[in-house]
Amino acid sequence: GDNYQGSIASGISSADLFIPLFSNNSLNSNTDKLVNVKGEWAQASNTNVKTSGKIKGKEKPALMLLAIEKIDKAHPVILEYFGKRSVENAFGGIVSDELIKQVKEKLNIL
């Protein structure tokens, strides 16, 4: 009975870090089938622009892009929603220690 779309939108707006996970299916799917996912990506991208700034002298982290399989990191959908930001690899859901360290640094929890 919860308004899950409203809850997701609220969570994206208030998140310290949004991590979209890219697969070939998500990038190449018909927009009608993934309107919610791509809408969330658009909101996260817009929120990042609005909340850019500094926290404790460092840029505020808002986005960290992850590929869960081999993808074209210059895919038009990524460029449309996130520009030329770096896309890190987390193939098969396996995350490196270095990537975990980067997330902790971005969230100032090291």
The chain-level structural class is mainly alpha
Q: How many β-strands, per DSSP?
A: 5
Radius of gyration: 14 Å
Q: Stretches where pLDDT falls below 50 for ≥5 residues?
A: none
**Helix amount, in percent?**
40-55%
**Measured distance between first and last alpha carbons:** 38 Å
* Count of runs of 4 or more consecutive helical residues: 5
| Beta-strand proportion | 5-15%
Compressed to H and E, one letter per element, the order equals HEHHEEEHEH
Mean pLDDT over all positions: 80
Largest sheet: 3 strands, parallel
Strand order of the largest sheet: 1-4-5
Shape: globular
Key phrases:
110 residues, mainly alpha, three-stranded parallel β-sheet, 5 strands, 45% helix, globular
